[in-house]
Amino acid sequence: MNKKQVGAWALFDFANSVYPAVITTAVFSGYYTGFVVGGDDGRGTQLWGNAVSLSALIVALTAPLLGAIADRGGARKRFMLFYTGVCLFGVTLFATLDAGMALRGFILFVIANVGFESALVFYNSFLPDIAPPDKQGRISGLGFGVGYLGSAIGLMMAIPLVETIELVWLATAAFFLVFSIPAFVYLPKDEPGGMTVPQAAKWGLTNMASIVGEVWRLKDLRNFLMAFFFYIDGVLTIIVMAGPVAEETFGFGEVERIVLFLVVQFSALAGAFAMAKPTDVAGPKKVLNGVLMLWIVTGLAAFFVQSSTVFFGLAVVAGFGLGSVQSASRSYVSLLIPDGRESEMFGFYALCGKSSSVMGPFLFGTATVLAGGDQRPAFLVLTLLFVIGLVLLQRVPSPHVVGGAPEGS
Description:
Strand order of the largest sheet: 1-2
Number of domains: 1
Largest sheet: 2 strands, antiparallel
Strand content: under 5%
CATH superfamily: MFS general substrate transporter like domains
Shape: globular
Number of helices: 18
Helix content: over 70%
Order of helices and strands: HHHHHHHHHHHHHHHHHHEE
């Protein structure tokens, strides 16, 4: 195991985690719904949910094809670099937004989010290359743990800049850019595939049905992705809707939201590190079973919360579950992937995560509007998603690792 590659891989998580912390969760989400769109009729929440859903749909439709092209065309690293640039382009242009620019903000967020999520497909696919199977839980946990540290530092960076909000977006883009550079220097180079990228693209477009069929025949991977589809929908919806909920339901201001999510990042960091070794020793399935029970309790409790103080405490508990569920899920799917198909299979992993994300924010926003602007009933919808995911997960065997190789899948 090359420690320099592991360090560079983890540092990319440190770099890119500033984006979900500042943009999709703590600052831009509330800025868009409360200032760019404005009003108290729930329209801002609905537009934000639709923007998240649209960007997720684009990623869901393109990720498996792009993953297959990257594997066969030897272009993983180049694709990761390109989509990172797309994300940075969108975030930088947030500085041009003002009140009433709902459409421009919508479009720029979709561009930035597609770039961010697509780059993650190729980033995740490096995990099997840099870590042996019996270390992937810990390395995945390291990545998420360092990522949450990056989120926390990014939020602390944003606090003194919120009075001049344009500087928050520029600082976020600069942070992401600078700390992502080592990954593009030290991660394994693109190896020539059996095809050029144009040939791989033509092959992928004409063979998409057979690619999907191959994944469907991998029973354990198929069943895991079906469970993942539901429970990660609940997780990702809570992430993207937490900012609007904190502002609109509990009256958090810009600085209060940042402080809330700063504390949550440290809680998530603790979850990622605390569950990293158990993921390798006990297996990711046992870890996910426990964490999904935690999410179910959290979702039910959120429906009844009236106090901003209790909401704060509940968010910290959810943060612990956030760190552990993401790390264990990435480790789980990595152990189920056939050699040489990493980008392609992580593309389907993204397909399930992002296609589910089309549903969750839409349901949350719609439930909020139907409830007359009350966001609490929407948490019951998310709780149901966790229950379905937990039930479906029981069909997947635990891929215990013995002697450095996955077993039971």
